[in-house]
Amino acid sequence: MKQVVFWGTRGSLPVSLTHRDIREKIVAALTAADGKSFKNRAAADEFIDKLPFSVVGTFGGNTSCVEIVGDSNDHFICDMGSGARPLGQAKIARFGIPNPQTYHVFVSHLQSDHLMGFPYFAPIYIPGNRIIVHGCHAGMEQAVRGQMQSPCFPVDYAQAGAKIEFDVMTPDQPRYISGINVTPKRQMHAGDSYGYRFESLTRTVVYSTDSEHKLENPAEHAEFTRFFHKADLVIFDAMYSLAEAVSVKADWGHSSNIVGVELCQAASAKRLAMFHHEPVHDDKQLARIVAETRRLEQITRGSRAPLDIISAYDGLIIDL
Question: How far apart are the two ends of the chain, measured CA to CA in Å?
Fold first, then answer.
């Protein structure tokens, strides 16, 4: 495995920047530039590069969709939230038509924020393409077909030109797929959710979203420590604060940044990517959360190797 590309990182529903959000970013940039002059574009770019990410960028608003770039020609995709639309457009732009491709889609669960992008994923309409939808839910095919059914969508599932197949996997049983061992794991979430551990000869990536963890359960803690063990990257559902996860939003099926750090430290994972962001959190809040999470990791690290912590955003590319 070479790279991980984030095409959608929000949880529950897509969000977008408002006019007020953009205005606040402009005001912050102009305030920081007070008294400065820029003779050329290079000077302006140098100044912008020093501004906080929350001012010059955005964590984005598309729901869950993550691409894992392997060594084979096949494509690996985790979930088909609204981020599947720009992913599909990028694939068409790169490979053109006709140029048959094989896409392996790994579905964590069947809620709409993780499937809503399927009808907008352009490669499904191109004859010759092969789409293999992997997951552990028996109702997976019915749920995908439901995304393209009147009156909810104008193009019927039967009009998809690609060959679409469904592969029901067994939890905890590894499957060798195009050079990568893939192991699904059942997680605590309404209707069940499944994380995936992707292992090549040299790299390991864990995709674990929509998963709630009970800190008081040592068996569950041990299970996920093994699941995350020495992963190069853990993509983790950090939707809530710890206070929310154990109180008002307990049993809602999501986790926190604090739990992510604890599990990754115990598992000797190398990098934690916080993911499935709460839709009400703006860029400032998400930037503050990742800064606080990094401070927590430093305080609790002890003699362990440092855990690299990032907050995933739409468009982020991580080299493995």
Answer: 7
Tell me what pLDDT residue 241 has.
66
Whole-model pTM? 0.95
The angle formed by the CA atoms of residues 177, 181 and 305, to the nearest 5 degrees, is 145
What average pLDDT is seen over the chain?
A: 94
Q: Domains of the chain by range and CATH?
A: 3-16+58-319 (3.60.15.10), 19-56 (no CATH)
Q: Which residues of the chain have pLDDT under 50?
A: 245, 248
How far is the CA of 149 from the CAs of 83, 85, 285, in angstroms?
Answer: 20, 18, 37
* Euclidean distance between CA atoms 4 and 67, whole angstroms: 6
User: DSSP H helical segments within 118-184, as ranges?
Assistant: 140-146
Provide the 10 A C-beta neighbour count for residue 302.
6
Q: What is the DSSP letter of 253?
A: S
